[in-house]
User: Fold this.
Amino acid sequence: MRWRAAGEYVHVRLGGQSYLLPWGQKIVDFHVGLQINESGVLLWNALGEGADEEELLMLLCRRFQAQGEEILLLRRDLEEFLLRLEAKGAVTREADQDCAEGHSGEAFFFRAGSLKIAYRGPEAVWQKFLKGFGCEAGKADQRVEVLASRPLDTVNGRVLVRSSEFLLMEGEAWYVMLLPVFPEIYELHVSRDGSLCRIYCRPEMSEEEQEHIFHAMRFGFLVLAQERGLAVVHSASLLYRERAWLFAGKSGTGKSTHTSLWRDAWGVTLLNGDLNCLGEAKGRVWVYGLPWCGTSGISTPETYPLGGVVFLKQWRENQVQELAEAEKVCLLAMRMITPAWTGVRLKKNLEMSEQILRHCMAARLCCTREPEAAEVMRGYIDERCDAGRGSADVGRHGEAGWESADVGGDGEAGRGSADVGGDKEAGQESADVGGDREAGQESADVGGNGEAGRERADGRGDQEDGS
Assistant:
């Protein structure tokens, strides 16, 4: 277990004594100061960059030259010291990958994309939305914990995105989202690396409100996916010639309508009606199954190689237009809902777009909603596949009706990246490490003398009809 010092406590020396004092939001939330001794200062300095318990224990062992049973006593006191600081909001636990700690209750494991998720929360959510993607238990890439309470501490940070539907903040260790559209969900916290997602909600929730938990989980997955080199694309997909083909476009363009034309004409399998997860492995790009599928109800846990990406545009006639390389990259990045909250994350999406397009064809289909549109696109794909051409050739600019790709044009890029569809009390407690405690002083001693009487411490998918 790794621990890290909280961002709103500061170490100061007053009158020859060391204290950890809260500031900012911690004062508003009624947190109190803690007195610590020199061993506590040693540990606090190590916690500034994050440290696991074994590293901290070694610091104490070297300080006290401990051996044998002394080490066991130091370990016990260290654990109590850390728990005491945690109870006061002075330290936080960093995400633990093995899911051994966390929310009580049985963990259900499922796969989203190529990643394994451990879910602890209402079983109804598991049964309705996730069970079909279930997998064997084991080391998880992400832990999702649904907690029936408000957060113990108020976590603030730099505001990245704000609208009438959500507020997204970036803290030192967490992304924090407030969702006024889902009042039963107090807050959603996701660790910066995406390995831990905590959803704080009301204890009693209706079936519809529990569904909001499922959609909120998507936000946490998107953070993790981008950190692991995956891209999630707002698109409908189908299986043809043993490959997955993505049909992407602005909301309302007719993605579901177009894929339905293929199903009705040739009986192809529809894979997902709203979102598709792409990633490279073994020299190919794969389309991984996701449980999130908007309102389409179409999803699969299966994985298929990617054939290509088709960008749809409503038009008065049906024709395929080949695209310049830069335009393909921009169009695909605009359809990604993996986070684009910062310039760094936007560049990640662009890099993933370039990587994906090196392995597949991409073209624009200007089309009607008539069956002929599917016939034209199918003919184009057949021609490319039969000729053994893995990607569409770079085309000419200036064709009639060719719309250029303006980055940031319709605001959909990054839409899903944040989409889900006091006074301080007077009085001071001390947290002593390895010291003697004065009578009446509450402490969290580590390495002390164990005197009697000492108190030890502790989205929903936004696919609209016809999209």
Summary: Confidence is low (pLDDT under 50) at residues 95-104, 390-467. The radius of gyration is 27 Å. The chain has three domains: 2-88, 108-227, 231-417.
